[in-house]
Specification:
Helices cover 32% and strands 23% of the residues of chain A. Chain A is built from ten helices and 15 strands. In chain A, strands 13-12-11-14-10-15 form a six-stranded mixed sheet. A five-stranded mixed sheet of chain A has the order 3-9-8-7-6, with helices on both faces. Chain A has a four-stranded mixed sheet with strand order 1-2-4-5. In chain A, helix 1 crosses helix 2, helix 2 packs parallel to helix 3 and helix 7 packs across helix 9.
Amino acid sequence: MSVTRPAGFRASGVVARLKSTGAPDLALVVNEGPRNSGAAVFTSNRAKANPVIWSEQVVKDGMIEAVILNSGGANCFTGAFGFQTTHATAEAVAAALEISASDVLVCSTGLIGVGDQVFRDKILDTVPAAVAALSAENAGGAAAAAAIMTTDTHPKEAVAESPAGWSIGGMAKGAGMLAPGLATMLVVITTDADLEPEVLDRALRAATRVTFDRVDSDGCMSTNDTVALLASGASGVAADEAEFTEALTALCRDLALQLQGDAEGASHDIAIEVVNAASEDDAVVVGRAVSRSNLLKAAIFGNDPNWGRVLAALGTTDAAFDPYAIDVSMNGVMVCRAGEPGDDRELVDLTPRACTILIDLKEGDASATIWTNDLTHDYVHENSAYAS
Amino acid sequence: MSVTRPAGFRASGVVARLKSTGAPDLALVVNEGPRNSGAAVFTSNRAKANPVIWSEQVVKDGMIEAVILNSGGANCFTGAFGFQTTHATAEAVAAALEISASDVLVCSTGLIGVGDQVFRDKILDTVPAAVAALSAENAGGAAAAAAIMTTDTHPKEAVAESPAGWSIGGMAKGAGMLAPGLATMLVVITTDADLEPEVLDRALRAATRVTFDRVDSDGCMSTNDTVALLASGASGVAADEAEFTEALTALCRDLALQLQGDAEGASHDIAIEVVNAASEDDAVVVGRAVSRSNLLKAAIFGNDPNWGRVLAALGTTDAAFDPYAIDVSMNGVMVCRAGEPGDDRELVDLTPRACTILIDLKEGDASATIWTNDLTHDYVHENSAYAS
């Protein structure tokens, strides 16, 4: 139960043989209305995949009627032919559903450079099956969530319900190149709340800014990241914007932490909590710098509370703080107090998967949390053989 | 033969028992003059170790008479006590040599947070032995180069000689946290050319800018990096500045590539050559972004020419280029031509340790090379257990 939980949506997931394993690899989500509001955010990478270039245009009028997603190939850096493939895919979905291709969002994930004639043929040949399999039942949403998986070990779904009578459902994929984002993070969120596109856009940007944008699993940004939000209005309830944004943010956080929890090869989920920063931007900059220290991430893998690597990383930023005033705690033990060795590092227990690094900058009252993972043998193994 | 190759220098390396292995861990280099010109560059990390804070002051007057270096502890984030240890070390060296402590550079390398009373006592107790062991012979320079090693597998030395009658010698250590710089990179370079401090400073900054500053092994910046250049004037030859700068740059490049070649756990030395950039800054920004992609570095470890990860990384920069116009070659095979799949990736042979990634931005005529390494199981292993 995810994208089909709200009223007014059907979904499917079928086999297009893009994946060599024969697992489902083509997903379709359709908004049956009565409303077809839509909003989306995309990777900020200048190296954008063809489906991102297409979808940025689709969403400009605030209307999305369908989202077609494939795993098994990113269709990125595949040239004019690749863009035509994206266009043809939207046209095929539009023809089958009797809607306009300009209201069909396209998402792809997989290896960059994959998008040849065989890739195109497999997708176009399978669109009719995806349309035929559309279902408003739980099974429809579940099939779609499974079909977008790449190196994910399990589907990611979440739902939220309001006493006011509307609900939200979401699905996500992504296990690497997570910084938003890459390997690739694709998210489709549906709601039956009756909302204008402008409200959806504001709510989606507010929610992603503090959730998906703060997952930095491996510092690598994807060429294909897309987070789409579709509103059917089928509940007939015009949701309160603040309440909707809050529920959407909680759902996005849920999905973001599911992505972190399934990150490629990871053995620790690390929350880097930066507090008492001069500004939220400073807190994010510091958290992100720490999250990108391979040395720290390798130490956490080894259950080694090497706090010097935290300080070495934050010293590379231009955020406001005195490096010699900072406190650093790891899993509740203040191992560095005012820039000097604090409590005994032997007291730190890093054996649980969940790890919290608390950094007190002692400059102001702003804070932010960045979610990352450790650097493990399995990460190296998975990513040294991905294309093979 | 390294720092004692030029006339006017003595050096030593002795055991202070800072390293649990009992290997030499205290090095001393003394400039016997007649001139005592000196210049140095330091880590740009705001989290600076105590010896860096001290040494920045020492070099301000352009005079360095001695450099004392220890491995086995970084003396960073060790508070006022740690700074006093650095000061006391300089005083002890100065007293033994009958010079001023304000002309003694201090360098430390090892674990951050290490710098207690035991650490201080071991260093101060061993300074007399370091002074007694000073030698102008090859053995003196070799002993110093060995004593500064941490995770290095072998000492790094280089020499250059001018037909004009002067020479340069250098030693370096560093195998991780290399981005200049960290794990930590310490370099001492000596010359018997007769040069003013201002000339040394200009030459050293020009040389390090295109050598040590372009090694980015693991994206992590050290708290202790120091590159010092000492001139004795003992050759009696006032070197031509341009010729000296060229020879110094070549020597620094030699040492930088030795650091890359001994980087922790690495199985590939990767040269990222960015050509036809709009500016040298753009070329460096692009090269550095690519050098920091864990996904690309893991792929190279797996001998996988995954060029999509090159493009995904450079797309995160704001350098001037059209991502869909770029050529990327790996070990001579143009795997991406004008933003589309180029020659067959199966033609790329990544089995040699040396790997070249050539990125043609097609924007201008500037270029730069960044030297990095692959991301391997051994890197993860070494850095997950460093403190233990």
